[in-house]
Target: Methyltransferase type 11 domain-containing protein
Amino acid sequence: MSRASMTMLNDSFKLTVAWHPKKSSHVRDEAFDIYHYACIGLMRFLSFNLSHMPFWPRSLERLRADPSYGFLEAGCSDQDIAGEQLFGCDLEQVFIDLGYRLFRDTDRLKASFAVGDLNADEATFNDGEPFQKLHGKIDIVFASSLLHMWDWDTQFKVATRLVKICRPKSGVMITGRQMRSTKGDHYTMTGMKDNAVHYRHDPETMERFWAAVGEATQSCWKVEAGLYWNEEIDQTKDMPWADEKMRMMWWCATRE
Model:
């Protein structure tokens, strides 16, 4: 979860004490011990990339215009968005607690959090916090470094659940940025747990993906997407699971 963005964007990222690099390293190490995820190891939770996404101006405009709009995962600092409009979801409570420790904002961040597995079985998901706490409150989702963790079928399952959590109306936006490829396909995450297989989309497969999600949820989505190269690819291009086709991709699915 882009926890850093939520804090910074909600209240200008005003820390009550001086920032210290060792503090963030210690928090990173604790989180990495819980889950060996590359984005944790590379401290991507300190990357503030939301405002650089092409879909962000539209998201911001809608949040400013209607205080009842809910934004899942991150918010916006110094941009007139109330903390009460911000929601976050993570797999373990400890990740949320570590975020509060890192940014020291327990008394300032007014966002609401839900803990649960978006990939749980149907009964567990329906009874869990993400659905029970967030259902009907979300208009915009930022799914940063989320879907690329899974294969096509699991991504499809999670995406349909994000649709289920959001309000059932036109204009809802489900957006994201993550590892993708110049050729959409399944790739083995060599060196990761159990050498798991995940699906890296290209812009064309992302359109096909959201067409399938729309059919399953009786909805229709307009998809925008683009590939790009940045420092994140530079940092990971020599990893055992990387290849020359790997890129980052932003995407935005808007409900029609």
